[in-house]
């Protein structure tokens, strides 16, 4: 090849990240070749010894890459042959670089998916602590960024807890779907060697082999799905960060971020900038872009392998790194942020935020809701013009809007009452929030146990292969 062709076609700068997994795949493959009597046992012993030496150098950071060789797979195979001689060339029967790449990438992303779940649960833990400490802290709930109805800070934080919990579940679902082993599919049609694909799948911690050899080497569903999972998680992070940016402003003054996770200004000494929240929000564009890249990349590719698929790694690798980094830093930000409870309550007391509750009160007096809505609208107008909150209006004034209003209205419209009366499942009352907290903690504990089991299974496979 011309040097320019070599440079243009090389993927080593990206797929070198999969070096560990390539060695693991080769160790599982050669053990299977030995068990199936495809290559001599003495050659297998030499190959295993050589691969373990290469693995140690990879882990130590001393493995030398030859950039004249186009990818990590070729680098490892050439290094093996240099170390042990012709026996190194006996490693490849029953597989192709096509299924080799596919299995390496699945193992790499399988670990990244578990890393993402661990990082999500770290943030969920921080959010749960805020929720547990603020079941009685009342704040405005917003729609259209306008005061809508009063809620507790606990309820607000739990909204994010359940969003991120779904993100973690999506990653676990994606993990489960990608956890099938394509090794042994060879180039596209399988192999004539009497291999045992179930043996290699088990050795690498997969639940089973992939079912179709053509699908095995061409499928990148697992990449697209993980790119989507990363995108959805990053979108939730971006929403949280958007609120933190607002809330940290002097106009809102709902929170104060810890000095360790903010920055100053080069010329304005008073500034305390929410830069981490802004950067997380800004990094969302790259994560979304990675998903778009993968969708366009895999659009219209004929079966089976096409060189286009060499470009599948960088977008999702970078995307996963970004999301995990953002989750890790945001768990620290949330764990150290101070919420100003008095300010939250002060702001909640403005803006006729209890108007819906007054309408609901009129419904209990037999007035149709649409009529009640209009009555309260007139009362709100008066409240704005007079500067007197609805709950502070004298009874005789309230009765000018409807003679159905009686003394008991003052049990309905204080903001604390507005919160506590929302007893529907999933609502903001203390009883409902207690159930939400219990549910969220239960989900977290269940995920942590599944995560522990999957990690342990994979680590046991690596220990078995490394010896």
Give the helix tally.
18
For the largest beta-sheet, the strand count, sense and barrel status come to: 2 strands, antiparallel
Question: What would the principal axes of the Cα set say about the shape?
Answer: elongated
Instruction: Indicate the CATH topology of the largest domain.
Output: Fumarase C, Chain A, domain 2
At the fourth level of CATH, the homologous superfamily of the largest domain is: Fumarase/aspartase (Central domain)
Low-confidence stretches: none
The CATH architecture assignment of the largest domain turns out to be Up-down Bundle
Task: List the topology elements.
Elements: H1 3-9, H2 12-15, H3 19-35, H4 41-60, H5 72-84, H6 97-133, E1 138-143, E2 146-152, H7 153-178, E3 180-181, H8 197-203, E4 208-209, H9 213-218, H10 221-247, E5 255-256, H11 275-298, H12 313-336, E6 338-339, H13 341-348, H14 355-364, H15 369-386, H16 395-398, H17 415-420, H18 430-466
Parallel strand pairs: 3-4
Antiparallel strand pairs: 1-2, 5-6
Describe this structure in words.
The protein has 467 residues and is mainly alpha-helical. It folds into three domains: 3-93, Fumarase C, Chain B, domain 1, CATH 1.10.275.10; 99-187 and 212-340, Up-down Bundle (Fumarase C, Chain A, domain 2); 355-413, Orthogonal Bundle (Ribonucleotide Reductase Protein R1, domain 1), CATH 1.10.40.30. Helix content is 63%, strand content 4%. It has helices at residues 3-9, 12-15, 19-35, 41-60, 72-84, 97-133, 153-178, 197-203, 213-218, 221-247, 275-298, 313-336, 341-348, 355-364, 369-386, 395-398, 415-420, 430-466; strands spanning 138-143, 146-152, 180-181, 208-209, 255-256, 338-339.
